[in-house]
Design goal:
By secondary structure, the protein is mainly beta. It is built from 2 helices and 8 strands, in the order αβββαβββββ. The chain has a 3-stranded antiparallel beta sheet with strand order 1-2-8. A 3-stranded antiparallel beta sheet has the order 4-5-6, with no helix packed on it.
């Protein structure tokens, strides 16, 4: 959790019914800034997902708001591109070296994995000890 917290994500996680394997919560702030979802993946961990339900990842080698996964890497790990939206809460948008806009969460650029073929898949987690799901803290009873 960053110094500002992730109140919208935490609230969404708390409101999800327990045992619902692929519950999705749309998060929107101040108009049309994009839809993000939360899915239960990897032994009950809740992860952030793109609007289409694909699990989102961060790359350990990326500095804040800078994508180092380009070229061949970006073919295997497509960046989550923004279409001119503005950031909100823990989400921000930054310009990649190629000029396209990419979403970041708590400063870390967001990517998808080509290995994931269905919502809730998290087959990219742990690859090369560098790729991680964006885990959303859940509420323990």
């Amino acid at each position: 959790m960053n110094r500002n917290g992730i109140s919208a994500l935490a609230l969404a996680a708390l409101l999800m019914p327990s045992g619902l394997a692929h519950a999705a919560v749309e998060l929107m702030a101040d108009g049309n800034v994009g839809n993000f979802r939360i899915f239960l993946v990897l032994n009950g961990k809740m992860a952030l997902a793109a609007p289409d339900g694909r699990t989102l990842y961060t790359y350990a080698k990326d500095p804040e708001r800078k994508a180092t996964c380009t070229g061949t890497c970006a073919q295997q790990w497509p960046p989550l591109l923004a279409g001119g939206e503005q950031g909100f809460e823990s989400f921000s948008v930054f310009a990649r070296e190629d000029g396209r806009l990419q979403w970041a969460f708590e400063g870390k650029p967001l990517y998808m994995s080509v290995k994931d073929t269905a919502p809730g898949d998290a087959l990219g987690h742990g690859i090369d000890d560098a790729w991680s799901i964006v885990e959303v803290p859940g509420h323990e009873m």
